[in-house]
């Protein structure tokens, strides 16, 4: 399999390949298959058993399943009622025409003249994109069922349209879906919901939030948790998807952006306030994080504020 590209929220640009809403008769067994892109399945009503490789998940109304590329999977619908569900096949970014394929030819087993490639060995080599700082569970019991239902319904609506802007609405809908999924799995501080060491990580984040302008050492955080530096670093990365230094940098850049928008301090003063005294280094980090130098960002916010007046 090809090397997997890595992406984050800055490069995320989902490409929707196929969307459908389906009702599957009770007792149905959908034979084992392999998919070559990502798939979300949202159960509206009914229940089923979904096997992904050697892992089995029981799904019912309000549950969301997530299937990664190249994994064997199969589904058995419960005998009590039909299974009503939505499904969307997508990539986290468009991999180019040479890596694209027709879902009708590959997944539905028909060649309808759309010009897509039929299944072949090249699909096994198709790269899979992975989000750097966020790992999605294979099963999520959704708490906000109505917003999740609505975004799938909108995806279905736009997938079936011939309008010139339909692809843009699909991309927009997919971003909303990914945002909802992230909200289901992460707290506002960016800690994985239900993580066994959430309290320790939250304490470290609160400490960084209160002292982001100071020199914060790993030893100070490790000591608060009464754990070895290596072990605590592993726990923190597992809970947040970021290393301690990555999280602290994001925290500092987020506060720097807010301060720049207030126009109360110079760029040098803001750099010092967020704990990065070297102006050149601060500007480099800010541009890497937000895509433009701090002075240009401050000027753009000021211009927008003037336009609103």
- What's the CATH architecture name of the largest domain? Sandwich
The helicity comes to 40-55%
Could you give the distance between the termini?
Answer: 55 Å
Give the tally of structural domains.
Answer: 2
Strand runs, count: 11
Widest beta sheet: strand line-up: 2-9-4-7-11
Number of helices: 11
Determine and state the CATH class of the largest domain: Mainly Beta
- CATH homologous superfamily classification of the largest domain: Jelly Rolls
Share of β-strand residues: 15-25%
Would you tell me the overall average pLDDT? 88
Radius of gyration from the alpha-carbon trace, in angstroms: 23 Å
Most strands sheet: 5 strands, antiparallel
**Shape summary:** globular
Write the CATH fold name of the largest domain: Jelly Rolls
Order of helices and strands: EEEEEEEEEHHEEHHHHHHHHH
Which structural class do you get from the secondary structure elements?
alpha+beta
